[in-house]
UniProtKB/TrEMBL annotation:
Molecular function terms, GO-annotated: metal ion binding
Superkingdom field: Bacteria
Domain Mycothiol-dependent maleylpyruvate isomerase metal-binding: 20-158
InterPro entries, alphabetized: DinB/YfiT-like (IPR034660), Maleyloyr_isom (IPR017517), MDMPI_C-term_domain (IPR010872), MDMPI_metal-binding (IPR024344)
UniProt-recorded name of the protein: Mycothiol-dependent maleylpyruvate isomerase metal-binding domain-containing protein
One Pfam family in the UniProt entry: MDMPI_C
Length: 281
């Protein structure tokens, strides 16, 4: 079996997006009253503080800091589904007793350390293959996954605080890179999860500030393609780009944006794809 090609990404572009979303999260939380840190997010069992604690934990892990020992069997918690979820919960529980302001200070501190380390990382290390949430891939691809993860969590926090992203706030590097990362998974979603039949040509038409077209052809295996070489799509799925991102991340749709999903062509296959958009672990 041929090895999967490694994704090589421009370091300055990815880091600009990662640093921008960190800045946006820190600004969003700056001066937040303590009671608002307890606002529930769309993620089961997690409030705003838990989401930020999780991000602190992941960046700490990437900086070489071991997860703290939990006070309970985190694997037994209802919303913990796998080993990664258990590690995340260790940090959530560890920081649960700290004030929101202290958790924000930790977030700023660890992301500042990560900025320095990533900025100094040589290109050969950036492009080297490593273990990532999407399988063996370049470290640069891993960092694009981090952009996606942090950007999705920013939307979670915004949802909890009733401060949804404006169109202008969605127009930036972090949003574009996050949609790039989601788009790269659509072959897996269409082929493996939704089991679209051979010969399918699926067009995702995303609208709003995250507007773009994503095309997937099923020919042996499902792959994202630039075009259908003059052939018409057999399936069309049209929806707001942020709603598409939320469904891909296993979140409910936002009440702040249009929720209409239009299906065209083979609507049975289209509906199956929409039902199986969630690819996150």
């Amino acid at each position: 079996m041929a090895e999967r090609p490694v994704t090589l990404l421009d370091k300055s572009d990815v880091l600009a997006g990662l640093f921008a979303v960190w800045d946006s999260i820190a600004a969003l939380l700056d001066g937040l009253p303590e009671n608002r840190w307890r606002a529930p997010t769309p993620l089961p069992g997690w409030d705003v503080k838990a989401v930020v604690s999780h991000m602190v934990g992941t960046e700490s892990f990437l900086a070489g800091v071991a997860a703290p020992q939990p006070d309970v069997d985190v694997a037994a918690l209802d919303h913990v589904r796998n080993d990664i979820g258990a590690m995340n919960e260790c940090w959530v529980r560890h920081l649960g007793g700290e004030s929101g302001a202290d958790v924000l200070d930790r977030f700023r501190s660890v992301t500042q350390d990560r900025r320095a380390a990533l900025t100094l990382m040589p290109d050969e290390e950036w492009n080297a293959v490593t273990a990532t949430p999407v399988g063996p891939e370049s470290y640069g691809r891993f960092m694009r996954v981090r952009v996606f993860d942090c950007w999705m969590h920013e939307q979670d926090v915004r949802d909890a605080l009733a401060r949804p992203s404006s169109d202008d706030e969605l127009d930036g590097n972090a949003s574009r890179l996050s949609l790039d990362e989601i788009a790269a998974t659509m072959g897996y979603v269409v082929g493996k999860r939704a089991k679209a039949p051979a010969g399918s040509r699926v067009l995702f038409e995303l609208t709003g500030p995250l507007a773009r077209s994503i095309r997937v052809r099923v020919n042996g295996r499902a792959q994202v393609v630039d075009d259908f070489a003059g052939e018409q799509q057999t399936v069309t799925i049209r929806l707001d780009g942020l709603q598409f991102a939320r469904l891909s991340g296993g979140r409910p749709m936002s009440s702040a944006r249009v929720q209409d999903v239009q299906l065209g062509g083979d609507t049975d296959v289209a509906a199956r794809i929409v039902e199986n958009l969630n690819f996150v672990i």
